[in-house]
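PROTOCOL LOG
Step 1. Enter all chains and additional molecules of the complex.
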Amino acid sequence: MPKRTDIHSVLIIGAGPIIIGQACEFDYSGTQACKALREEGYRVILVNSNPATIMTDPEFADRTYIEPITPECVEKIIVRESEHIKAQGGEGKLALLPTLGGQTALNTAMALVKRGTLDNYGVEMIGANAEAIQKGEDRQVFKDLMIQIGLDVPISGTAHTLEEARGIAERIGRFPLIIRPAFTLGGTGGGIAYNREEYEDIARRGLELSPVTEVLIEESLLGWKEFEMEVMRDRADNCVIICSIENFDPMGVHTGDSITVAPIQTLTDKEYQIMRDASFAVIRAVGVETGGSNIQFAVNPDDGRMVIIEMNPRVSRSSALASKATGFPIAKIAAKLAVGYLLDEIRNDITRETPASFEPTIDYVVTKIPRFAFEKFPQADPTLNTQMKSVGEAMAIGRTFKESLQKALRSLEIGRSGLGGDGKPWRIGEKLYGDRDILPASLIRQKLSVPNAERIFFIRHALRSGFTVEDLFNLTKIDRWFLTQIKEIVDFEEALASTAN
Amino acid sequence: MNADLLAKAKSLGFSDRQIAHLTGRSEDEVRAFRKKIGLVPSYRLVDTCAAEFEAYTPYYYSTYDRGDDEAQPSTRKKVMILGGGPNRIGQGIEFDYCCVHAAFALKEDDFETLMVNSNPETVSTDYDTSDKLFFEPLTLEDVLHIYEREQCWGAIAQFGGQTPLNLALGLQKNGVNIIGTSPQSIEIAEDRKLFAAMLTKLNIPQPPNGIATNETEALAVAQTLGYPILVRPSFVLGGRAMQIVYSDAELQHYMRFAVEASPERPVLVDKFLEEATEVDVDCIADVGHFTGPNEGTVVVGAMLEHIEFAGVHSGDAAMVLPPHTLSDKVIDTIRQYTHAMARELKVIGLMNVQYAVKGDTVYVLEVNPRASRTVPFVSKAIGVPLAKIAAKVMAGKTLEQLGFTAEIWPQHWAVKESVFPFNRFHGQDILLSPEMRSTGEVMGLDADLGIAYSKSQMAAGGPLPLKGRVFLSVSDAHKDEVVEVANLFANLGFDLVATSGTANVIQAAGLKVQTIAKIAEGRPNAIDLLKNREIQLVINTPAGQTPRADEVKIRTTAVYTGTPIMTTISGARAAAHGIEALRKNGYTVKTLQEYH
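Step 2. Run joint prediction.
Step 3. Record the structure below.
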């Protein structure tokens, strides 16, 4: 299918200011989209309030609005541009591409649908339709859909009273349980309950804090293994996996705050194929017609049960990582798919021979490590949980996990030159330890059992002070394969140190 | 040293520094030995196909698995651009923007460009931004390998923020040609003594200051300067551990717990200028290409006037371009000082200066002969890509050749507002301070200053209310000014609510105000009203160095309920003018292409 000729201009919504959870990856994706669409001869209109982006450089779009990304303001732009196209005698319609500017762009586009702006001005949403966005974004609708297509999801229920909450706990049948109040900012008032008493407390508080007196209760997947798949689909229903990503940190830590590794390291091929098939089923069921999606899975390490956590029907933070990890330009291809091309019609820039319908294959290991800024917020709790707190990330590539992990650690700009042994002392609270000091076991145990920014380094401290891989697994639930790899680094550190005179 | 052991260490990802410390050698010794035995990394392609097909886009990573090297250095003249590494507060997307522009500019001038960076979120690590991309850590070891392997002509370290700047001297020592302003000039700007000597020579005032390498020295310096003082460690970006200190006790605590001072890394101590207006200047110069003292060109890109008074980190402050309250005389002085310093430092490329203006006196706070955080903002406000021009100047061109020799004073207003992550860090006070905590920024553009400000607030996610209730609670120091602000809001038809102290002052001035209870006085109090969404705007200024628990609670509740909050009187004033402009005419939108 050739590209669409009924489109005159494409309006791209950017992501706005850099905030935690929505960083410059959306400048990267938006810039790629602008370039790709102009290459195809479309007139590109861009709105983004963030002046520090490359995409808002005047050369990247025909019309660049550095204006607030609010539904009201974007409506003004649509009105103005519709008139402009008409006045110029332009043929074809105005299309809106909302999938490259993160949650901000998606929410703004949905608000414009609800206001009737798109209908009133004959604007077509491309890349994803409103129905698919709704299905992907509404937790309950998404869960029901997954069950319909035979996939497993975490057991959950919604309660409006304490009675209902008790009933749901009964039905799920085991602790811990996750409680999330509906419609509170940043999940305020939610929590994890490990016993009945705690459960009642948190549920009561959650119901009180929720403006609609509603809490979502979910079985806890703490300690499960977490995986992500980056999928792309075109109008002819071709699907490809661009990249598979494994979270080093088990469930309970936001993926943006987890160390992640590509490709997946600890699944068998069979398990991987099951996950691949499930990914295609999800993107089809949700109905993302063209473009990229990110799908998150959790796997119980004890019995292998696999559940779907969520999907993002848009280019996401993981897409940027997947693009850099594989060399496959997801945002650029997504933009081309949105205007009608098929995956097999788009050439891969890197090989110039293979089409974009070839799944990338990689012969190296990529490690991403988040960068935190807790030193700037001393009054805040530095524990990692389901709300993202990191402000950036470093990625490194090596031929083995060990090589890429150490390269990534020395990329972090925290003064460390690897996992340890670089001579830099460790400041823990107000205490200072030497680089090769053996730290107190109680401190190690505490730093391992609760996810935090330094946990990776405490795995080294623990191994050096005699903890076994099994001890570490019990404390962290990090896969034994990763722990064994780290042990090899630590053992070698000792071997090196023993050669010192 | 055992060659096999070393090879194994490298294949496990150990850096030279780790190996050096573990084996009791210096990093230089390890590197020298490695080179002697030919142990260097090989570069491999990221090619999407596991080497199944030939790859045409040169996107590389290094490895020590001793396999084939796929890098094919060309014979072209090469410039390496050092990126900024992972984003963190104080070092964000602005620096990546500058690096990307350097790549674009030097490609245009027919150099081969090599990008080195480790941040996957960026445009700089897109494989078609530069001619060659090296996805590598930004350390001396990793960067030197690439530079030597590719036989580069030069490297740009002044665009990627503090990360590459910290590497500059080490790289230079190892034979790297750092192009643009010399690392020696950068050192003059960063070294207290050299910098003071330069200012004395140029007859430019700076706030009285000193340095301290330990607690005793710090107390002695404080005694000479008198409190309040501003303290900070040297060689950091983003105001890490930067603080205004009001007493000996606070200073002692700071020296003991907040910094690690040493003779190599002293703590900088400045007299803090209260209630001064800060101004940021970005300029570009090519004077280092010439020998004569008056040859070459210096152009001020823009002056940005801070809305908040001195004491708020420039990365967190709201700013207005061009300045809106400064006199012509002050603007002239700023221009003159900027030119003088650029010439003295023989700048080739960008330079950022921070000034504090008190009355008619202009003080220099800081000079940084490198790309600053405000470069992209300025470039868009004046319609000239400063980073791009600067890169071309650094690689040899003059500003005259590039046709940029005159200042541009825009006919519209550009307001920069910062965006903070406080909603992620519950319990953290949100007061602005010399320590930068914002993650991002937005720009409001308009022909009217009030509208430009309103747009910046909308874009930052805290749109100004057009009507409703304003809650005021200010410290004693601001009791005089609060009347003026209260009056502005009353005239706009807002209802005023205040706690007793502030209410008394407002009432005495003849304005109608509803008094509500302080938190300790009972209920309903400000927190209740905020939670019930009965307050549309909060004006709350801090009481002093140790905030009352009350205040913190009000401010954090405002954040959590999404209520716009102004923590400075000048911010509140700007908000009132913005609301007035918005109510009068609403706002319109306009493209960047139409502005320039």
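Step 4. Note key features.
Chain A touches chain B through 112 residues (CB under 8 Å).
The longest helix of chain A spans residues 269-286.
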